[in-house]
Write a structure and sequence with these properties.
By secondary structure, the protein is an all-beta fold. It contains no helices and eleven strands. The termini are far apart.
């Protein structure tokens, strides 16, 4: 079973930037599509961004298009989410997740992802 550890969360001011990382254990990272999801208390977990196993394809939620960039470094077994122009509504716990890489198009539904990290908290102050 693949394990993921998110890091890079914290407190930032509106308009600021933050870079999240998701480090994967094992040597099978490159076989998975990877996604970032976020969740606030009392609300369903929502899709943020995803990237194909090869890094050749990406998908973004409308709410983050133009502000967030997902990337991966398969040689380092690491997934990234660069978040710019942060807004208070971006405040949430952010989770990285893995989906089996044979699927296409890149899945954006929570239940399509099989393995999850434990999350990292992002707080954007107004």
């Amino acid at each position: 079973q693949v394990q993921f550890l998110e890091s890079g969360g914290g407190l930032v001011q509106a308009g600021g930037s933050l870079r999240l990382s998701c480090a994967a254990s094992g040597r099978t990272f490159s076989t998975y599509h990877m996604g970032w999801f976020r969740q606030v208390p009392g609300k369903e977990r929502e899709f943020v961004a995803a990237i194909s196993w090869s890094g050749g394809g990406t998908a973004y939620a409308d709410s983050v298009k133009g502000r967030f960039t997902i990337s991966r470094d398969n040689a380092k077994n690491t997934l990234y989410l660069q978040m710019n122009s942060l807004k208070p509504e971006d405040t949430a716990d952010y989770y990285c997740a893995a989906a089996f890489g044979r699927a296409w198009p890149i899945p954006v539904k929570t239940d399509s992802y099989s393995y999850w990290g434990q999350g990292t908290q992002v707080t954007v102050s107004s």
